[in-house]
Amino acid sequence: MPRPPRLSPDDVATALAELPMWSGGPDGIERTLELPSFRAAVEAVSVVADVAEQLDHHPDMDLRWTKVRLAVVTHSAGGLTELDLELARRVDALFPARD
């Protein structure tokens, strides 16, 4: 399946305005999930892995105690694509902001 093309800087800026928990730019975006426990963080990695498998698009994940850092980029496109944004949206739906 062909990968979507790299997004323009303007498209990335517009998308990030709708993804306030993510930071970055045309070269990739990231978000850190903060979970209540180590076990919850490990489970979050598994949940994100399931989404990644569904999309056939896999983020870099770094687990540190109760935090999971996610970094997303489409390496084959040399930057951010719609596939990265879809993964970010799905992660946000599963892990909304905590008040």
Automatic annotation (TrEMBL):
EC category name: lyase
Pfam family, one: Pterin_4a
Biological process, per Gene Ontology: tetrahydrobiopterin biosynthetic process
GO molecular function per UniProt: 4-alpha-hydroxytetrahydrobiopterin dehydratase activity
E.C. code: 4.2.1.96
Source organism superkingdom: Bacteria
Reactions the enzyme catalyzes: (4aS,6R)-4a-hydroxy-L-erythro-5,6,7,8-tetrahydrobiopterin = (6R)-L-erythro-6,7-dihydrobiopterin + H2O
UniProtKB keywords: Lyase
Membership in a protein family: Belongs to the pterin-4-alpha-carbinolamine dehydratase family.
PANTHER family found in the cross-reference section: PTERIN-4-ALPHA-CARBINOLAMINE DEHYDRATASE
Name this polypeptide is given: Putative pterin-4-alpha-carbinolamine dehydratase
